[in-house]
Structure formats: structure tokens, C-alpha cells
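Good morning C.,

I know you're traveling, so I'll keep this short. The sequence:
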Amino acid sequence: LSEELEKERIKVMEELDPSMKVGITGADVALASTGTIILFNGGGKLSRVSLLPQKHIAIFHEDQILPDFETWVQGLAADNLDVFRKTSSITAISGPSRTADIAMEQIIGMHGPGELYIVLVQ
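The C-alpha cells, ready to paste straight into the viewer:
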């Protein structure tokens, strides 16, 4: 992916820079019932890549989609919760960042990306 982006003259940054406009990540799990993607952070996977830029693009395979949160948790329990021991944090993303705690007005992109794009690979 990095090589293809560079061919299109899109600068790929290895270090996180607050001026980045787009963050591209994978997703470890996607939950069909809520449209939520789950990202495990740590081991070179930085949560800031999905939270700092104005636009976040998440790329994952259709076989990573589970029906719902309960199915995901049952799978974690079956694996003795190993993922929790190997990750520094888990980020659950169900769309662009939004808040309404300031004068009860909804603001998109206040505490994270204002735009979220999903690329599903078959």
C-alpha cells in the first residue's frame, strides 16, 4: 500500500505528525450489528493514527466481520483473553467523532476524525 500511495505522490509518514491529514489503519474485528470496528493497539500499532488526523481510513477483510459484540467477547473468552494481554489498549470506532456536551450542540470531529472511511477487501 505504501508503494502505491507514493506512486501517486502521496507522502507516507512513518512517524506520527500532528499535521497529517489522513490516518490509514487495518481493523482487527468489525461488528456488523453496530458498524463498529475494533483496533488493538500496541506492538507498533498506534491508536493515534486512527484518532489524530481529520480523516481515518480503515481497511479490513470481510472474514474479520462478526455478527455482534457478544460473539466477539465469546471468541475472546474461548482464546483465554490473550488479546487483552498482548495489547496496550483497544479502540472501538462506530463512526466519526461526535459530541454534544458543549451547549448541547452536536459537533463532529471534536475528539477524533471528522470523517471515517471503510475499505472492505473481499
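Safe travels,
E.
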